[in-house]
Design a protein that fits this description.
Strand 1 and strand 2 form a beta hairpin. The strands form two sheets. This protein has a three-stranded antiparallel β-sheet, covered by helices on one side. With 168 residues, the chain is α+β, with helices and mostly antiparallel strands. It contains five helices and five strands. The longest helix is centred in the C-terminal third of the chain and has 13 residues. It is globular. The protein folds into two domains: 65 residues, P-loop containing nucleotide triphosphate hydrolases (Rossmann fold), CATH 3.40.50; 87 residues, Rossmann fold (3-Layer(aba) Sandwich), CATH 3.40.50.300.
Length: 168
């Protein structure tokens, strides 16, 4: 039996912000096929850790190693579309990436937004926007999917929706 491949290895990640210790020597490994959930109160550093993993901010100390050819998918906690930019959902999903049309339709069905693809991004409800962000994070077929508060804005039925039977 083969050992699962290590996708991300973080060692002693520390971060201080405005004199406050946000992260203190956080270490973990994420192996292929594993799920990690980071739980904590507001201000505990969960989003900061995600931003460090994505390379959006630099840790004060520690290091992160990524497997070769890693692709990350990311759904942010908060995203507010610019109301002055007239962009449709489908155009937003295609920004900066070339997407296979059939795969896009499959993911739109999975995230239950097929009927929103031609809608203006600025007209979506919070839950609809969250589903669009999830769809966009899946489109590059990531090895790792990082979700920051993925059910934010979803109604109770959206939070309970079971997609475990769908294979990409």
């Amino acid at each position: 039996m083969t050992t699962p491949k290590i996708l991300i290895s973080a060692h002693n990640i520390s971060l201080t912000h405005h004199g406050k210790n946000i992260l203190d020597k956080v270490s973990f490994e994420l192996k292929q096929g594993e799920f990690i959930t980071v739980i904590g109160p507001n201000g505990a550093g969960k989003s900061s850790l995600i931003k460090i993993l994505l390379g959006l901010i630099k840790a004060d100390s520690g290091n992160i190693k990524y497997a070769k050819n890693i692709k990350l998918g990311y759904t942010p906690q908060i995203f507010t579309p610019n109301p002055f930019i007239p962009i449709s959902v489908i155009d937003f999903c295609n920004l900066n990436q070339k997407i296979d049309r059939n795969f896009l339709k499959k993911i739109a069905k999975l995230t239950e937004i097929e009927n929103l693809l031609n809608s203006p991004l600025k007209s979506l409800s919070g839950g609809e926007l969250q589903r669009v962000l999830l769809m966009r994070s899946l489109l590059n077929k990531p090895n790792i999917l990082i979700l920051d508060e993925p059910t934010q804005g979803l109604d109770v039925s959206g939070q309970k929706s079971d997609r475990s039977h769908v294979v990409l």
